[in-house]
Amino acid sequence: MTIVAAWIIGGFYEEVVFRGYIQNILEKKLFKGMGRWLPILITSILFGLYHLQQDIFAVIAACLGGLYWSILYKKGNNNLWVSIISHALFDMITLILIYTGKFGNLI
Prior knowledge:
Elements: H1 2-30, H2 37-50, H3 56-75, H4 80-99, H5 103-106
């Protein structure tokens, strides 16, 4: 059940909201003609702050992940499925490592 939630919430929902909506609004409306990097950076920071309920390290990791998925989204010609699948796979692997007790051994 947790894996399914990771695919729906982490992969699908977060990518639709952050890359599909927020990043596009920033790029096409608020910062139109100012390039891609400012919307990418702002979206990545907002994505990190969205994970504030965790801890500061999760916020930093989410900012970096958001940066990666934002760039992946742009490199994939704005194909949201590329970032959705990548994000969902990352969350799924992370959850499997956590729930099998392997994650702590990696650190």
